[in-house]
Amino acid sequence: MSKSLIIAEKPSVATDLSRVLAKAPGVGKFEKKKEFFESDSAIISSAVGHLVELKMPTRPDGKNLGWGFQNLPILPDRFELQPIEKSQDRLKLLLKLMRRKDVTEVINACDAGREGELIFRYILMIGAVEKPTRRLWMQSMTNDAILSAWGQLREEPQMRSLADAALCRSESDWLVGLNGTRALTAFNSRHGGFNLTPAGRVQTPTLSILSERERIIRNFVSRDFYEVHGTFQVAAGEYSGRWFREDFRKSEDDDQLRAERIWSLQEAEAIQARCQGKPGQIEEKKKPSKQSCPALYDLTTLQREAGSRYGFSAQRTLQLAQSLYERHKVLTYPRTDSRYLPSDYIGTVRGTLKGFASASGSKNFSEDYSHFAGELLSQDYLKPIKRVFNTAKVSDHFAIIPTGKLPAAAIDEPAMKIYDMVMRRFLAVFYPPAEFENTTRLTRIGQDAFKTDGKILVVPGWLEVYGRKPGVAGGGNELAAAQPGEEAETLELELLSKQTQPPARYTEPTLLSAMETAGKRVDDEELRDAMSERGLGTPATRAATIEGLIRQKYIAREARDLHVTNKGLALIDTIDALQIDILASPEMTGEWEMKLKQMERGQVSRQAFMQEIRELTETIVTHAKKQTDELKKRVFPDLEVACPVCGNGPIKQTDSTYECYSPECKFRIKKYVANHEITLAEAKQLLETKFAGPFDDFKSRFGKDFSAGLELDEKFKVGFVFESDGREDELDNLKEEQILTRVTAEGYQNEPVYETERAYLAPRLGLQGDEKGIRVSKQILKRDIPSDQAVKLFRDGKTDLLPGFVSKRGRKFSAYLLLDRSTGKVSFEFAAPKKKSAKKRAAKKS
User: Fold this and answer.
1) pLDDT tens digits for 236-281?
2) Would you state the pLDDT for residue 386?
3) C-alpha span between 217 and 808 (Å, rounded)
4) Calpha distance 197→183 (Å, rounded)
């Protein structure tokens, strides 16, 4: 009897299929064998993710191809496959089952998307299997969804376009990634050694987005500005307003300009003086507005919002959503890029809501869900609206929604947070819009105007699902009502001193948004949705791209921020120097991703796309070779000093190193160290005296400034020397004329405090048993510490309130410095916040 071989992507899915398909007509009960299930008409087994990969290039003799430019570009006419070593046994099993004489067709039950198609196709190709194939396309893992998909198996011609796109994705990543990585590695290794420099079709443009923002932040120069805030009173109570320039026009040349910013202290003081104590004339404009619920979730939107709300990484959100789909079966397929449902799906949704409305008693099923599901049905809110039901905007998969299966008690808290997000969006999307009353109030005092914005939630609509009640809505004050023609009494005018701030670093949520729109800052949801076809990667791969950049140390997480490391910036600099910017172009890569999606729909041919990728690959290698050859020809002046290793001289200077001319000598130091370029004079000093500096322009891998000297150690390697490293010499060389003062503190009498070039020292104060005493730097967080405050710190253990410290995020703050004499550590004590008047607290309470 002939049998169908069904191949799932993971063993757990194979187990579920064996349980559910046993109920399908003509399939029969499955018997568990060692690594597969078998019935009278079918065999079910699985891969364990990818089992096959594209083979690395080799020489005719089978040995690995070298990494030099002479072997580039690598453009095979035919791509060879090889088994992934760790899963070879599973591949052998599947190939054995596929070759059984009683197996007459092979059914692909891998995840329903591009990568699932690739896993299956590579297994067929490496095994040279030519038996008929069909596709089991599942939108969710519930019993009904599996049986429905079994009854509608897709034929091979229906899957050809998706298979082409899957193969093109794999082959284009291989060509661009392998050739780009090898070209950059050859360039960075041109002076010897092996400096692996990974690059990729999606990874490098993503790094380019981050690097552009990082450079803006590092080069940002803060500017002082001022604001004038007023507190006003009418018969109904107090309200606040902010002075603004009514004739302000936004400038394209200076994006730091704002209507409320005053760039001169004198002007701000003049505004404060001429308005102080004078009555204000009130003008108001009220405008009703409506806000519809955002669309249903696709994976990127879910990752973005879960990152903002709960701090989940994109990878973590994907793992949780996948477990809710695959293991718990309470969500539909999560790796989707659609936020819509099919137009004929309203009946299914109605049935799901009926089930939720009648559900009760489940530990993980909130009474809220039942209540709102019941209200949707009783109020007849469920309508076939285009912003939810639109087949034209459904790709391989529709939006992520609940399946209707109630969540089990075994689902943990992080997963339930994702489930709650999806459930509430599913319920809220059918509710009416929320209604607001927006009020703009101008308080005029002569030629000046103070602006107050208020936003009141009048009808909660869909926001009711999120617990919102009528009343204040964020973004403004709860305005005390003013009567027509009423004057406002000016209670207080406060002049605030501020500084402009650089744009925030990307977090995973904001980076996902940028990847979705190929680097363009798009806040409008509809426009972002329209541009999503031109995104970097797919919803299923973006998290892995970010993790890959972190793993390769191109970027690093610090709290929620993503910092580009010096290594990451150096890669983008190298790409720019080699004139292969196309490798880092988010727009270009976004266009390719769009073409892959068009290929899935049969609108772009596989041959045309791969020809474009091959041309790109040749361009990258050609430009890299040309620029490398030109750099090699460039002549730099020699360093007239003897080699510290072999004694020969002079020392050769290249574009990136200082190195010995002697071929037998391996001495070499880098010209660039932590963002600092070692000049010819500095290199001479370093090689002759074994020390140079200190220098103030070093940057850590997180982009933080630091100061240090450079030393050549006994192994002829360059290392940092920080202030504390030379402390014994500093103490030994103290002179009488350096005594700043003598202090008497608890347990100490008339102890000297010295002032050196970089620090204040009290060699005999505190630190019992430690002869080094206490040392306090003359600059702390970019704030110079004056000598009188240093004296107070050593004598009293506390300074006055000092303004002008700069935090790690670049924000200025004021604080007292505290000294712990037992440890010698200096810490901060922050000033208590300024207390508001009772009336002001009452006005701002909400």
Assistant:
1) 899 999 999 998 888 766 778 889 999 999 999 999 999 999 999 9
2) 93
3) 12
4) 9
Task: Give the DSSP letter of residue 334.
Answer: S
428 φ/ψ angles, rounded to the nearest 5 degrees: -70, -30
Percent of all residues in the chain with a pLDDT value above 70, rounded to a whole number: 91
The rounded distance, in Å, linking the Cα atoms of 669 and 134 is: 60
3-state secondary structure of 259: coil
In angstroms, the CA 335 to CA 241 distance is: 47
Name the packing angle between helices 203-219 and 586-600 (round to 10°): 150
Q: CB-side exposure of 637: number of CA atoms within 13 Å? A: 8
Q: What is the pLDDT, as a whole number, of residue 613?
A: 94
Query: Alpha helices of 31-155 — where are they, by DSSP H?
Result: 88-98, 114-127, 143-150
Catalytic positions = 333
What is the distance between the alpha carbons of residues 604 and 161, in angstroms, rounded to a whole number? 9
Three-class SS state of 585: coil
Closest CA to 813 of 835, 830, 826: 830
Residue 157 has pLDDT above 90, yes or no: yes
CA distance 695 to 717: 18
At residue 626, the 3 state secondary structure works out as helix
Q: What is the C-alpha to C-alpha distance for residues 80 and 73, in angstroms, rounded to an integer?
A: 17
Please count the helices (runs of H) and the strands (runs of E) in the chain. Answer: 22, 35
Q: 3-state DSSP helix/strand/coil percent for the chain, to nearest 5?
A: 35, 25, 40
d(CA 764, CA 779): 22
Q: How far apart are the first and last CA of the chain?
A: 75
Q: How far apart are CA 846 and CA 838, in angstroms?
A: 14
